[in-house]
Amino acid sequence: MGKVRQPQQDRSIKTRAAIMNAAFALFAEKGIHGTNSKEIVKKAGVSIGSFYAYFKNKKTLLLEMLEDYLDRHYTAIWGEVNSSPPEKWGEEEVRSLVRHVFRAYDISPEFHRQTHALRYSDPDINEVYERDRERQVAQLESLIITFKDLLHIKDARASALIIHNSVENAAHTAKFIGHRMEEERLINALTNMIYQFIKPR
């Protein structure tokens, strides 16, 4: 099969977007394994030839969708934080960041749930998720290093990983597994834990 092309014209961009949107809807409705390329193009209103013009197969489409989804997930968490001066951070800023993580899981929860489950059996999907984890941890590490003259944290990298895993696990549990405790209580507890850990001594 020839090289997959990137859309340059407006019509091509719309066709490609229609395919991805149709796949999102079908994956949520029928599951990733329960959806095939013919169903995707039918829902998108395009030909099967158009599908293969942009995507080598369903797996290629899925990986690109996951990259796009995790970019939106990352922006939902860090988009506003990056414009806030780090030196002005306090407990409320920590709470805001934690709340952003919880809200980011609402972008496309079913897609996140399905792809996250697949990461344990699919090395390609796991690689995409690991790249995202790396940039999330790197962003946290950068914030900690910004405060290095005020904090008494000896290992910024390990601390960033612990904070990331704590918040991600709590949000994941609340959104996907279900928990009887209100989200706000979880957010407040995480905020207090993290702030007590990183606040200037």
UniProtKB/TrEMBL annotation:
Alphabetical keyword list: DNA-binding, Transcription, Transcription regulation
SUPFAM superfamilies: Homeodomain-like
DNA-binding region(s) in UniProt: 36-55
Gene Ontology molecular functions: DNA-binding transcription factor activity; transcription cis-regulatory region binding
UniProt domain HTH tetR-type: residue ranges: 13-73
InterPro entries xrefs: Homeodomain-like_sf, HTH-type_TetR-like_transc_reg, HTH_TetR
UniProt xrefs under PANTHER family: HTH-TYPE TRANSCRIPTIONAL REGULATOR BETI (PTHR30055:SF234), HTH-TYPE TRANSCRIPTIONAL REGULATOR RUTR (PTHR30055)
Name of this chain's protein: Transcriptional regulator, TetR family
Source species: Desulfatibacillum aliphaticivorans
Lineage: Bacteria, Pseudomonadati, Thermodesulfobacteriota, Desulfobacteria, Desulfobacterales
